[in-house]
Backbone:
C-alpha cells in the first residue's frame, strides 16, 4: 500500500542530491500554463461572459450571473447546521487570536540627528480570495484566507468559489455561510483559472468584480498556473501544489496515531503526499499494519486514499537515527510536519524547513486544519525551504518613509556623490549637488 525508501546504508547526500531521493508528487505548472493562457486571455477580453462560459464547460452549470445574491448568503447561514456553525465560530475566534498578534506597527529609526527612516505597514487595498470546490468543500479555507486579510486591515475582500450544479450554480452553502459569519458579502460563483483571471482583469457591469491587488488561496494545478501567468499584474501568495504531510517519528510513537495522520492527508486527493520518516523498523512495520486496518474502515478509499498512499509521492523513509531524520525532513520541506518522538519539542526546535510544525501526539495536522488558531494555507512542494504560510504579513506592504533635514543631507552628501560616481551615474550625484549650489559640503 505504501512504499519504503531505505536511507540507512550510507552517509546522506547534501542539498538537491538528498531531495532527489525523497518522494514527491509530479506537479508541472509550466505544462499547465499553455492550457490556462487562452482562458485568461478570453476573460481579459470578454469579461463575465467568458467566466460564465467556462463555468458551464468545467463545472457543468451555467449561472445567470457571477455575483452571489446577498439573500443566498444570508439563507446559507440561516440553514447551517448549528454544530457546524459553532465549530466555524470557534475556528474564527482562535484564528483571530493568533493573527491579531501578527500585525506589525509603524517604527521610526533616527539614523542621524535630523534624519529618520520610518517603516510603515500598509494593507493592500483589495484582495481576491480563492476557495476550492472540487472533491471536498472547504469552509475552513474561507476562515484561513479572510481572517488574516481582515486583521491586516484590508478594506476590499472578494471571494471566488466554483459554482455547484447541485446547488443551482451557487458555491457550496457551507462556504457561503462561512462568508456570512465573517461579514464578507462580495462572493462570486467562479472557479479555476477563469476565477483568477476575473480577479486580475475585473469584469464589467453593476454586479461586476473590480480588479484586485492580491490573490491568495489554494487550488488545483490550473489555479496555480493562472497565478503564475498573472503574477505581476496581481500579487500572489504561492503556487499551491498537492497537499502533504511528513511525520518524523521514533520508537516512542504510537503507530495508530501515525497511520491515522497519514490517512487524514491522503483523503484530500489522489496526489496528496503522506511521508513517514523514522529510525524504527518496528514502528514502520506497525504503521504498515495499521494502514491496512484503518484504510479498510475509511471513506474515499479507492478514489483518493489508496492512490495517494501507493503513489510515488508517499513512502516510509528509513533513516539511521533522528539526526539523519532531521536532515531528511529539512530537505523535504513539508507543508505539514509532525514530530512524534521522545522530547518532541526539543526535536521540533531543531527543524529548519516546514510550513507548520505539529509537536507531539496531541497536535495532529487535523487540529491545524481547523481549530489550532494557526493558518492552514501553507507552502507545498518543498517551497517551505524559502516561503512562509499565509499570515497577516501576506496582506501588508512595508513602506519606508525617508525624512532628512538640510543639515542631515549635507552631512552625508559627499558619500552619496562618491557612490554615484563609482557607479557611473553622475546625474544621481548632480541631484545632491543641485541642492547645495553645485558644491558638495565638505565632510565634517
Residues:
Amino acid at each position: 500500500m505504501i512504499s519504503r525508501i531505505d536511507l540507512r546504508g550510507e552517509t546522506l547526500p547534501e542539498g538537491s542530491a538528498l531531495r532527489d531521493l525523497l518522494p514527491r508528487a509530479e506537479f508541472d505548472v509550466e505544462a499547465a500554463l499553455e492550457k490556462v493562457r487562452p482562458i485568461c486571455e478570453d476573460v481579459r477580453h470578454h469579461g463575465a461572459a467568458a467566466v460564465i462560459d467556462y463555468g458551464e464547460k468545467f463545472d457543468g452549470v451555467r449561472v445567470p450571473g457571477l455575483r452571489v445574491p446577498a439573500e443566498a448568503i444570508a439563507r446559507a447561514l440561516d440553514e447551517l447546521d448549528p454544530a457546524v456553525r459553532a465549530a466555524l465560530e470557534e475556528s474564527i475566534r482562535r484564528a483571530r487570536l493568533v493573527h491579531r498578534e501578527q500585525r506589525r506597527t509603524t517604527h521610526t529609526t533616527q539614523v542621524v540627528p535630523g534624519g529618520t527612516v520610518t517603516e510603515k505597514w500598509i494593507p493592500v487595498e483589495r484582495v481576491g480570495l480563492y476557495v476550492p470546490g472540487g472533491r471536498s468543500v472547504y469552509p475552513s479555507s474561507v476562515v484561513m484566507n479572510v481572517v488574516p486579510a481582515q486583521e491586516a486591515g484590508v478594506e476590499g475582500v472578494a471571494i471566488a468559489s466554483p459554482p455547484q450544479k447541485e446547488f443551482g450554480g451557487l458555491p457550496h452553502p457551507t462556504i457561503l455561510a462561512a462568508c456570512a459569519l465573517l461579514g464578507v458579502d462580495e462572493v462570486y460563483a467562479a472557479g479555476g483559472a477563469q476565477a483568477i483571471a476575473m480577479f486580475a482583469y475585473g469584469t464589467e457591469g453593476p454586479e461586476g468584480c473590480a480588479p484586485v491587488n492580491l490573490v491568495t488561496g489554494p487550488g488545483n494545478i490550473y489555479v496555480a498556473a493562472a497565478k503564475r501567468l498573472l503574477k505581476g499584474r496581481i500579487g500572489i501568495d504561492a503556487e499551491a501544489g498537492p497537499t502533504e504531510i511528513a511525520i518524523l517519528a521514533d520508537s516512542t510513537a504510537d503507530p495508530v496515531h501515525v497511520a491515522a495522520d497519514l490517512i487524514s492527508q491522503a483523503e484530500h486527493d489522489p496526489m496528496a503526499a503522506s511521508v513517514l520518516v523514522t529510525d524504527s523498523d518496528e514502528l514502520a512495520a506497525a504503521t504498515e499494519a495499521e494502514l491496512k486496518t484503518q484504510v479498510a474502515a475509511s471513506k474515499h478509499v479507492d478514489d483518493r486514499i489508496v492512490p495517494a498512499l501507493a503513489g510515488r509521492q508517499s513512502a516510509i523513509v528509513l533513516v539511521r537515527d533522528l539526526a539523519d531524520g532531521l536532515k531528511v525532513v529539512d530537505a523535504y520541506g513539508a507543508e505539514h510536519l509532525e514530530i512524534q518522538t521522545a522530547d518532541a519539542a526539543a526535536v521540533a526546535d531543531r527543524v529548519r524547513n516546514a510550513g507548520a510544525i505539529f509537536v507531539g501526539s496531541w497536535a495532529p495536522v487535523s487540529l491545524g486544519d481547523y481549530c489550532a488558531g494557526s493558518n492552514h494555507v501553507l507552502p507545498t512542494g518543498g517551497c517551505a525551504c524559502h516561503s512562509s504560510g499565509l499570515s497577516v504579513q501576506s496582506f501588508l506592504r512595508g513602506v519606508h518613509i525617508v525624512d532628512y533635514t538640510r543639515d542631515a543631507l549635507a552631512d552625508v552628501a559627499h558619500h552619496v556623490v562618491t557612490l554615484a560616481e563609482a557607479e557611473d551615474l553622475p546625474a544621481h550625484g548632480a541631484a545632491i549637488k543641485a541642492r547645495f549650489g553645485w558644491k558638495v559640503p565638505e565632510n565634517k
In short: The longest helix spans residues 29-59. The mean pLDDT is 96. Residues 31 and 271 are 17 Å apart (CA to CA). The radius of gyration is 26 Å.
